[in-house]
UniProtKB/TrEMBL annotation, chain A:
Protein name per Swiss-Prot or TrEMBL: PX domain-containing protein
GO cellular component terms, A-Z: early endosome membrane; plasma membrane; SNARE complex
Gene Ontology biological-process entries: positive regulation of autophagosome assembly; protein transport
Domain PX: residue ranges: 44-171
UniProtKB/TrEMBL annotation, chain B:
Name of the protein in question: Sorting nexin-30
Annotated source species: Culter alburnus (Topmouth culter)
GO CC list: early endosome; phagophore assembly site
GO MF term (any one): phosphatidylinositol binding
Keyword 4Fe-4S among UniProt keywords: no
Biased composition (Polar residues): 8-17
Range of residues in the leader sequence: none
Alphabetized SUPFAM superfamilies for the sequence: BAR/IMD domain-like, PX domain
PANTHER family assigned: SORTING NEXIN-30, SORTING NEXIN-4
Biological process terms in GO annotation: autophagy of mitochondrion; endocytic recycling; piecemeal microautophagy of the nucleus; protein transport; reticulophagy
Region (Disordered): 1-68
Family: Belongs to the sorting nexin family.
SMART domains, sorted: PX
Keyword Membrane: no
Amino acid sequence: MADSGSEDIAVIGNTDLTPSESENNLKNTMVEKGTSLLKRMEISVAEAEKRTGKNAVNMQETYTVYLIETRPVDAASEGTNPVPDSLWRRYSEFELLRNYLLVTYPFVVVPPLPEKRAEFVWHKLSADNMDPDFVERRRVGLENFLLRVASHPVLSSDKIFYSFLTEENGWKETVFETGFQAKADSRLKALNATFRVKNPDKRFAEMKHYGDELQSVISQLLRVRAVGENKRAADRLYGVYKVHGNYGRVFSEWSAIEKEMGDGLQSAGHHMDAYAASVDDILEEEEHYADQLKEYLFYADALRAVCRKHELTQYELEMAAQDLTSKKQQREELATGTVRTFSLKGMTSKLFGQETPEQREAKLKMLETQIEEGEELVKERNEECDEFVKSAWVDIERFKEQKDHDLREALISYAIMQISMCKKGIQVWNNAKECFSKM
Amino acid sequence: MSAGTPRSLASSGQKSIQDICHPLSAEESALSRSPDVLNPSGAGEKDLSLPNGTPVDTSSPASSSSLLNRLQLDDDLDGETRDLFVTVDDPKKHVSTMETYITYRVCTKTTRTEFDLPEYSVRRRYQDFDWLRNKLEESQPTHLIPPLPEKFVMKGVVDRFSEEFVETRRKALDKFLKRVADHPVLSFNEHFNAFLSAKDLNKRQGLALLTKMGESVKYVTGGYKLRGRPIEFAAMGDYLDVFTQKLGTIDRIAQRIIKEQSEFLMELREYGPVYSSWSSFEEELHDPLEGVAGCVSNCSSALDELTEDMSEDFLPVLREYVLYIESMKNVLKKRDQVQAEYETKLEAVVFREDKKTPVPTDVEKCQDRVECFNADLKADWDRWQNNKRQDFRQLLTGMADKNIQYYEKCLAAWESLIPLLQDKQEARGETN
């Protein structure tokens, strides 16, 4: 029934899948045994450590490194349990990896990293990147990221990703050598496309809108809970429980002046203390739920990025087509001598006299070439666009399945957590009630 | 602080409880029914009454246990048959040109010969209760007089005519009269008799005002210095001091909890609509998210109820006890005065110096007074301790009950959500 609540934040599901289940890709979108790296390799982010060193501008800085451990799956199942391979990586290297993936696979909804700075954090956990709680939750988030990439049908076979996991030195250089940074679309270009594209695929427009709404709604939920300094739901709940602890003290003091009532009061007070103490676990589990929501908050961004890329490719196709059309028109005008559309050349030739037949001939030839090239370009872009739409939509469908599954699981474990909290509350108050009735 | 909005009391014409049939009376009175006492569900309305007239709160599932609690309260009159039953109910608003005020119906059933009739039903307002208490304090200064709910409420801060306020006051007034009725000495007081039976208290109040002045002089034995309080009374005084302190602390804690809960409730209420709006643009997740929204909403209501209950039922009782203790400390002081007077006069006699010294009979009277006072006070103290124990057992058990109910409601809401959340999964599993 409700025992799936014991799953970890990784929400990857267990890796012991039966062959029949692995056949059904749609169902196990996260772990695709047939194609993903995860079949061959166990991956974990085992530890975090503080380091100090000189940075690029030769200044001392303190930073955190994370230990990535990998181990071939077969070795583990044989029971010999060899020492895993491991290497240390900084958060910035994870960022580099992700940026590389974003540029190289623009049709993929790339899994997000845990937040860079603690934004929606309950006050007990500081916004300090060095805070141990924050580091711990980041470690879990980074592991989750690696597992998601390793189980993705496309991303998992990437060489750079593989070497990220296995080659400590020189990895950065390797990434830069791919020249991925040059392939990145400028923001301006992307924005321009978004505004000017005429016929984007409706499905992508809807998906983008969905991404907007998802981001908005999850932000709201996280904000109600806690945001920065603002003490909201999490803090209030903490207050309710903790103040009950004061009953413990006053009952104890009161019991000192009572004869028959004393024992009952005293023991009831202990239960009030237990009640107060129970809030720490509750808030930790709620933090867990918040982390699950956060992942999809950031996923919404990745989804929108794919949609924007579509708009860009579509726009570039439209631009090429438009350009071709205008060139063809120019050719027609030149050939027939009629001016149907306004062109600066046409105006200047009117003003400064007609061209010579030789000049016209040269122009026509140039136009012909351009038209040929233009047609090639349109064909190319059309193919690109179609390719993109096809592969992006496949990944979007995969993402949808994953999202529905994961969020449902998150809601279930949240409900289970609430049930457990209620049961504990009932138990504590029943215990207190028993003590009171013996007063 | 109650999280809900207070509702205004409707003017005259409000029907409320029906008394149950007096166990000693042969026939039912025209106005009353007799539902089965131990079957709270038999009465559809609030305020069922027990044989001694104590109203029963049937609004919660825990009521049957609190019912039994109240039945057990009668153990201090073990072996004695109760012959005086008093209830306060049926608050009504009266509007006149001069003022607006609330009156309560005070019903009495008794077999005592001190009363002319076996039954009475009169209407009294707070002023009248206040008058009664003052008369009791004056005429029975050696006894502990139960407290009344607070007299003054800040206009504008509290709505004196809201249903919640009136109900809280009614319960306190009812408790006051019951405590007096259960007291072996106070219940025979002539003023108490008048309060219960006289059609119109006004005339007596006028007289009372004059006599009030005169009588109050009697026990203001000013200026006598007390050597030292006897140990047992000193112990009482110490106990009361510490106890008041603890009650004050508990009051503050309870208020703080109510405040935190109310603020938490405000935040909690924001979640529901967000989940709802989320569900509106999801397909597969539509039902689960809508379910969560509903669940959160149910939990919010449950928390609201808990906070209101604590405000209305828990805090007033604490405050009542603080008032009770205040008046008890005053009685202790009075006792000290009486003893001081006696000691001073006794000394003067022993060291007879001038003709002004009082005659021995005067000293004897003082001695009697001291001894009476001490005896009454001791008896009342024991009774008070016993009542206090029961009252607090009931109060704290009630607090635990309310919290249990809150969690049970939330538990039910979340448990019913689980199958809804898992629904699609199982369906898909089957199609595999």
